[in-house]
């Protein structure tokens, strides 16, 4: 007679056993591991019914918080370090693929996309200033985009976006429908880019929902160090989603979403008023950040 009753650890095995007819091997592998780990977790903490119900209510509240502009589940994944783990696993897979034929230069590291990317930012000429009307100290961003052999990538697309000098993104201000501090640029014939924006300030991840409550209960702060989001795309190369982090920003050592990579920290140099590197006459003090990006050719990707 088939087994009718399962106890303790056997329940996980019984659930896994019901997937005998599953036709998708990867899905089966992922679900098997998920079931094993979920059951092991419940056993480990000796999960009580009211705690389990609290968790269901928490996840329900996360779902209710979501709309086109707010994704509480991604925020949950970010603050629990899972988003960064998935990024790092992807990068490690890429590094393993490069092992047989190590490149001259290491590819730029990736980090989390975050919830503030907005498709359709204006494409502007190199050298444009996207900080007009925004709070924050002016900053000149420049560098070169190459492949991992050091070959300059002309015409590479660079999307940039950041919060303002007080840490607020355009989506969080006013009616949330007016783009600011974001643009798309294309590298010149030598792979160089340069533009003006502000030196980004640290800011809290949205903490007015269930994830904010979770952070407070965990005794954690919600802040991210100042960073310029940068997404790069070049024909024949892997897309790169990354940030340039501000070296002297508060919270550089305790990013709420664990996105900091040492290789992504740039020194933001301070300059007195006067001639900027692009010849612009600056009436105020300003900063400059130099950062070169290296993209992996698609043929060498994992
Ligand atoms: C951000 O950098 O914009 C961000 C990333 C993860 C969660 C919240 C914000
Ligand atoms: Fe950000």
Characterization of the model:
With 302 residues, this protein is an alpha+beta fold. It folds into two domains: 58 residues, no CATH class; 220 residues, Protocatechuate 3,4-Dioxygenase, subunit A (Sandwich), CATH 2.60.130.10. 27% of the residues lie in helices and 21% in strands. The chain is built from six helices and 14 strands. The strands form four sheets. Strands 1, 4, 10, 13 and 14 form a five-stranded mixed β-sheet that branches. A five-stranded mixed β-sheet has the order 3-2-7-8-9, with no helix packed on it. Strand 7 and strand 8 form a beta hairpin. Helix 1 runs antiparallel to helix 2. The model has no long low-confidence stretch (mean pLDDT 95). Bound molecules: benzoic acid and fe (iii) ion. The site of fe (iii) ion has 5 residues, from strand 7.
